Predict the 3D structure of the following.
Amino acid sequence: MPLVLLTGATGYIGSHTWVALCAAGFDVLGVDNFANSSPAVLPRIAHLIGRTPRFEHIDVNDSGALAATVARHGVDAAVHFAAHKAVGESMQKPLAYFRNNLGGLVSLAEALQANGSRRLVFSSSATVYGSPKSLPIREDAELSATNPYGLSKLHGEQLLRELERCDPAWQVACLRYFNPVGAHESGLIGEDPRGVPNNLMPYVAQVAVGRRAELQVHGSDYDTVDGTGVRDYIHVMDLAEGHVAALRHLFDGAGSLTANLGTGRGHSVLEVLRAYERASGRRIAHHVGPRRPGDVAACYADAELARQRLGWQARRDLDAMCADSWRWQSMNPQGFETTQQAEAVR
Ligand code: WQD
């Protein structure tokens, strides 16, 4: 059974991918430094995969520790999630984002190469498209970065493509996520952002559960169906299953690829809000405020390439995304833990 190293394994997308990989028959070794996640995830992963999870508390930028771990366990491939991912924060700390996101990627590639493994799935983002010139967005669309976070993802892809050019033994899948939302159907794991959520769905979830007073809608004068921003929301379990399909593609020797992981369909902020009210039975208080700097009116994927080359497509609709998000949030009103518990672990 191939052993897959998962970096950022206790994070939102990492934890859901852990469950999907085990369900698909892979053996998984998770690593994380808990910079943006909680060790409280681990017993829940254990429950969901039916065994003690293989995990090591490591920062991927600690090259020595990572190389030793990869060599000790004999890793066959890696899925690389570990990165800082807040657009706004990246504008305030650009060098920290470049060092952590690009340095961590190089550290991982070195550890894999030293161990004779050259299969890597890279967590990229639709943010590499900048402000899209046409919709839906295809993988061959113009790329541009509008913030240091997006630049770190764009350069991560370029670094891996150059690595392949120099050493064709590398097989790399760059997966460009659109807007991951929702939670595992068990309600045991889900999105638990630190502080005030930047993203729409976790903020809406916290209003529904009573942690936040009301949602501010960032602008209602866009050229969209109802004036509010349109995005391609994808269920996190569909996203996780997309990683399983990408790993199978690499293990089959079917070659490197870059693929959008989206549904191909856009929903507005107000459509998301109404769907969440249906799912939760709660009214979501909201008011319209000014546009958020850097936002685009609409962004959604052409998802055809992943369907053709990976045999994968998103299956869960917006109502399922909201229902699973609400189950997680209502079962865990304060997320995985209080701040005190988090500090105690660090
Ligand atoms: C979605 C829509 C907002 C919050 C971001 C990152 C991107 C990727 C996914 C990492 C927009 C509106 C939001 C709120 C609102 N992350 N909104 N009130 O901006 O599409 O993408 O997350 O890869 O890199 O940029 O997602 O959820 O922040 O916003 O009205 O309180 O919801 O204006 O139209 P976004 P989002």
